[in-house]
Amino acid sequence: MEMVSSSPRTSTSSRRGRSFCLRSMLMVAFHVAASSAFSTPIFQETATLQRTAPSKTVGVEIELPDFDEMFRRIQAVSPLARLAVQGGGSGEGGGFGAVDDTILPEGQKWKNLQKSKGKLVSQIDRIDNFQNLGPPLLRWRASMKGPCHGMAFADFIMNTDKRQMWDPQIESVCELYPIFDLDAANIAMGFGKFGDCKKLGVGYTKTKAHPIGISPREQLTLCGIQEMHDGSALIWGTELEDWHDHLMPAGERQTRARSHLFSIALVPTGEDSFDAEYSLQLDFGGNLPHWMTAPLVLDSVKSMFGVAQPFFETDGSEEVQKRIMEEKIQGEKFVDRNSILFTP
C-alpha cells in the first residue's frame, strides 16, 4: 500500500505565496463540499458499476473505490490531509501552523481531550457517534523530529514486527493482494489529483484476545500511500464490504472490526521535522460498548507516536534518508514499476 514522487522537495515561502490564490479557490470549493453528508458510496455492490484492477495474484481483481469521495471524506476530518493534498503548506511555518481548523466535518464540532505543546502528541480531539455509526471519530496531532517519509511511517501500521512494538494485541497484519500496476490506480485517481500513489493493496489484520475479555478481531481493508511533490504523504485505508469477503484468507472467521475512516497525514516542516495527524473511526464489532473500546484506541495510538519518534529522530534516521535517496533514483529511472503506460 505505497507510492512514488521524483519531483524535488520545495519548502520556501515564495512557493507557498505563489500557490496562495489556487489554495484559496480550492478552500472555497471545499467549504461547500465538506458540508455535505458522507452519503456517496465508496464501493459499488453491483458488478457492472465496479471499477477493478488486477492484483499481483493471477485471477484476483481489486475493486477500486470512488477515490474522489474517499479523499473528500479524509480531507473533511483531517485539516493536515487537506493541506497535504492541496499543497503550499510545507516547510518552516507550515504543517499545523498553516492548517485551516475552521472547516468542520458535517458541521460537527470537535471535543478537545488533550492540548499541550510540550508533549509529543500535542492534541487529541473526538467527535462522538460520528455519522451515527456508533464509535467516536478520534484525531491525534504530533510534531515529529526526523525526515518525513510516508513509507517508513506506514511500516508502524502495516509491518507486523513494528506494529507489535506499540500494539501488543496484534497477531498479524499483512498485504494480501498488492495491485499489479500502480499507474492503474493513478489513472483512477486522476493522475496527480491526490499526489502519486506509491502503494495500494488489500490488507488483512488479525488481533489476539484482549485481557479484559475482548475476543480476537479481524479486518479486511484497502490501503494505500500517497506522496506529494513537496515531500508530504498521506497514508489511508478503508474497510472493504461484505461482498469482498472472498478475499479473506483461509481459516476460522473472527468477529469483524471495521475502520469507517482511517488516515495519517504527514507534512514536512523543515529538513528534519514533520507534523503528523492521525484520524480514525474504529468499530470493534460485536456488542462491545464504545465507551469501553474508545480509550483503548486512544492510548494505543498515543503509544505508536512514542515508538515512532525515536526511530525517525535517531535509530532509523539514516535508514530513512537512505530510502528517500534510493526512491528518488528509482523514481527517475522508473525501475521495477510495471505500467500500462509502457504497454504498446
Task: Characterize the structure shown.
Helices cover 31% and strands 27% of the residues. It has 344 residues and is of the alpha+beta class. The strands form two sheets. Strands 3, 4, 5, 6, 7, 8, 9, 10, 11 and 12 form a ten-stranded mixed β-sheet that branches. Strands 1-2 form a two-stranded antiparallel sheet. The longest helix is centred in the last third of the chain and has 26 residues, at 290-315.
Break the fold down into its secondary structure elements and pairings:
Blueprint: H1 13-18, H2 20-34, E1 51-54, E2 61-64, H3 67-77, H4 79-86, E3 111-115, E4 121-127, E5 137-145, H5 150-158, H6 160-164, E6 170-178, H7 182-189, E7 196-207, E8 217-227, E9 233-239, E10 255-256, E11 258-270, E12 273-283, H8 290-315, H9 317-333
Parallel strand pairs: 8-10
Antiparallel strand pairs: 1-2, 3-4, 4-5, 5-12, 6-7, 7-8, 8-9, 9-11, 11-12
Helix pairs in contact: 3-4, 8-9
| Terminal-residue CA separation | 27 Å
Helix content: 25-40%
The gross shape turns out to be globular
Strand content: 25-35%
Biggest sheet architecture: 10 strands, mixed
On the 0 to 100 scale, the average pLDDT is 88
Number of helices: 9
Gyration radius from CA atoms, angstroms: 19 Å
- Elements, N to C (H/E): HHEEHHEEEHHEHEEEEEEHH
Uncertain spans = 1-20, 24-36, 340-344
Number of strands: 12
Give me the secondary-structure category.
alpha+beta
